[in-house]
Amino acid sequence: MPSSMGSRLNVGGKDVSNINDTGMFRSWSQDEDYIFGKAFGTMPHRSNATIKYTEDTPPYTAPEIIYTSSRTMGKNPNINLQYNLTWIFPVDVGFLYLVRLHFCETQLEVTLENQRVFRIFIYNQTAEEEMDVIHWSGGNGSPVYRDYIVLVPGKSQTKQGLWLALQPNRDVIPKPDYADAILNGVEIFKLNQSDGNLAGPNPEPPMMGLSSTSLEPEKKTAPKNNLSPIMIATGIATGALLAILINICFLAHYQRRRKRSDESGTSLAKSLWVPFSKKWRSTDESISTLPLELCRYFSIVEIKAATNNFDRRLVIGAGGFGNVYKGYVDSGSTAVAIKRLNPSSKQGTREFWTEIHMLSQLRHVNLVALIGYCDDQDEMILVYEYVARGTLRSHLYGNDNPTLTWKQRIQICIGAAHGLNYLHTSAKNMIIHRDVKSTNILLDERLLAKVSDFGLSKLGPTSMSQTHVSTVVKGSLGYVDPEYYRRQKLTEKSDVYSFGVVLFEVLCARPALMPSLPKEQVNLAQWAKKCFHNGTLEQIVDPSLRGEIAFDCLNKFGEVAETCTRDRGIERPTMRDVVWALQFVLKLQENAVKNINVGHGVEDVGCVGLDTGGTQASPSNPRGEVTASDFDDLFSSRGRVLDSRSTWEASSGGKSIQMGWNNSISNSKDESKSGIDQNL
């Protein structure tokens, strides 16, 4: 049962040619192309470090240059605790893999045990809970390696991402000195079947947990000066063969079990709970490998059963990814939405794995939950919770769905804003959605909004010094942030712009782009902002809402949308500010309806589409206006942005109103202050 080489990396270092290897003629590549996201960590290098090989780790294990170079997470513990240092290796499904990790502490500050302790995850499984290089190697400058056998299940001749991730472990007692992790080298070998096949798919075996093995190179029995490369190669082959033989019994067991399955007429193509780490910390603390309880692997047999072999009558949506089917799993007890990748789609494998990695770690009432996935027989499929009422757009125009009331629309916008705010602030790393639009906001039976489709999502800046992520522009026409389009620099404010377009879409019930209209009206955001500044916004409101929206509510809603869609990102609010402002908009509408109900009449409130002459006076508001104590002009075009992230200033009636993270109100006349609870 021989093996084939998959990857051999000099982590944190340069390429190493075979002539510079320690007699084994191996080539080592740089690791940068395999790193996931923008979190590259740092690369400490001590070329003058003395590498002290041992009997357990002889010189032919790896050349010195592998151990003198490394990649760590950096010196900032706050940043390190907010991300995983992650690599992705494309591998063939249906095979066992030997993953060898090389370690060596050469930094002068790490000389004792329990100074740097970290977790290792391989293929979403916990390989080591408390990896302490000094403990395993015996001291600074002494190299050590660890071997792991992992099964990548599947039948089809496709590739899948084998994830390797490092995470600081601060749960050890006593607490380690550094919140950091380190890696020097990686080798990945594909182990073949007993028939010598290294290319074809294996019969799908039951999932086997990750196992750490003791694949030690053969100990030298001859003096050093008599040790030839041939003897070394023989020793390596012998040691590897011993370890590989351990796994033959597993494969024999798999074959027997499959044979029994075929004879009994049952199928082994059952979905498997991928054995992810049970030491997972919740998403409000960490972005880690996929947690055990959150992501399920489905076989293609189950998917076909759930969709009646992809019956077109079950199609409930379509997009750049492919068709979305309604299906049932778990013996028909659970309704799900099944998104099937179209092989001709421009979106492909990268978006597929991006969505799995990101969405499986997120749980929020306003985000669509990923239940599981299928990567089997050349099919890439995502399985989500079923959201009964479909897209927000289908409830605004182009469909026979009942018309949404104005209050329902505001509540839907608040829910979607909560979801985006969670992505920007509450996940371990900031996540930028990059494709916010009305078709990616779904509504459940209670009209609760859920943000969906994370295929284009991107991790935001991963350090305090970063303000943006440089990336190729992606998104949907009409929703793309113009500043992002011009500069190709992505920030969370790009999502804010797209959400502002959705707000105008909700108000006007028309698409973001309508090429058939006159030129100035083609782009909804530009047209609506022009109407807002001209004081004619009510003229483009959805006709079904005429007479329903209070004037003050409309003005504030327009201000929020206008501010979100400003050309410069620095002038836009954060999603947290947007959530707060929309809640204020809802309060304005509810107060207007309340005034009607207590007998003041519609004329006392003033509604769009009725000739009331604007907001009228009432006993509690003799001037007929929303006062500063109600946070008037918070998002007004008259307001002046003080801090693009949190602080706004506007003036009304001699009062200066400021909103920051503490959202306090200051009155220039009496300096009174009041705090606002912002536990959103």
From TrEMBL:
<feature type="compositionally biased region" description="Polar residues">
    <location>
        <begin position="644"/>
        <end position="667"/>
    </location>
</feature>
<feature type="region of interest" description="Disordered">
    <location>
        <begin position="194"/>
        <end position="222"/>
    </location>
</feature>
<protein>
    <recommendedName>
        <fullName>Protein kinase domain-containing protein</fullName>
    </recommendedName>
</protein>
<dbReference type="InterPro" id="IPR001245">
    <property type="entry name" value="Ser-Thr/Tyr_kinase_cat_dom"/>
</dbReference>
<keyword id="KW-0325">Glycoprotein</keyword>
<keyword id="KW-0472">Membrane</keyword>
<feature type="binding site">
    <location>
        <position position="339"/>
    </location>
    <ligand>
        <name>ATP</name>
    </ligand>
</feature>
<keyword id="KW-0732">Signal</keyword>
<dbReference type="Pfam" id="PF07714">
    <property type="entry name" value="PK_Tyr_Ser-Thr"/>
</dbReference>
<dbReference type="GO" id="GO:0004714">
    <property type="term" value="F:transmembrane receptor protein tyrosine kinase activity"/>
</dbReference>
<keyword id="KW-0067">ATP-binding</keyword>
<feature type="transmembrane region" description="Helical">
    <location>
        <begin position="230"/>
        <end position="252"/>
    </location>
</feature>
<keyword id="KW-0723">Serine/threonine-protein kinase</keyword>
<dbReference type="InterPro" id="IPR008271">
    <property type="entry name" value="Ser/Thr_kinase_AS"/>
</dbReference>
<dbReference type="InterPro" id="IPR000719">
    <property type="entry name" value="Prot_kinase_dom"/>
</dbReference>
<dbReference type="GO" id="GO:0004674">
    <property type="term" value="F:protein serine/threonine kinase activity"/>
</dbReference>
<feature type="domain" description="Protein kinase">
    <location>
        <begin position="310"/>
        <end position="585"/>
    </location>
</feature>
<keyword id="KW-0418">Kinase</keyword>
<dbReference type="GO" id="GO:0009506">
    <property type="term" value="C:plasmodesma"/>
</dbReference>
<keyword id="KW-0547">Nucleotide-binding</keyword>
<keyword id="KW-0812">Transmembrane</keyword>
<dbReference type="InterPro" id="IPR045272">
    <property type="entry name" value="ANXUR1/2-like"/>
</dbReference>
<feature type="region of interest" description="Disordered">
    <location>
        <begin position="644"/>
        <end position="680"/>
    </location>
</feature>
<dbReference type="InterPro" id="IPR024788">
    <property type="entry name" value="Malectin-like_Carb-bd_dom"/>
</dbReference>
<keyword id="KW-0808">Transferase</keyword>
<dbReference type="InterPro" id="IPR017441">
    <property type="entry name" value="Protein_kinase_ATP_BS"/>
</dbReference>
<keyword id="KW-1133">Transmembrane helix</keyword>
<dbReference type="Pfam" id="PF12819">
    <property type="entry name" value="Malectin_like"/>
</dbReference>
<dbReference type="GO" id="GO:0005524">
    <property type="term" value="F:ATP binding"/>
</dbReference>
<dbReference type="GO" id="GO:0005886">
    <property type="term" value="C:plasma membrane"/>
</dbReference>
